[in-house]
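haha ok so turns out i had the wrong file open the whole time. this is the CORRECT one, sorry everyone. sequence first:
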Amino acid sequence: MTKNIAIEVYGAEVICASCVNAPSSLDTFEWLQAAIPRKYKDQPFSITYIDIEKEPENDRQKDYIERIQNDEFFYPLVLVEDEVAAEGYVQLKPIYKELEKHGFTAE
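then structure:
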């Protein structure tokens, strides 16, 4: 597999009110950044943190930010190749499942 898989984590410094006792969005981003390459060695991916309290870089990001702010999604919101993989209290299993749909294989 050679395609670089894009992962995006949308979040804010303040923990989501509905996600009490969950890690912060930035903690979730850093956790995924460390966990994914341990399970899927040498499989290319990029992971980006998008702060929902800052100006978005493009219309697609703006759309997701507005949807979070309108309570359509909880944050952190994790996208894999523009598909929602997890939101709120993020767990690894659904993210791994989404990565495997895109050809990732565990070693």
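The two ends are 14 Å apart (CA to CA).
again sry for the mixup
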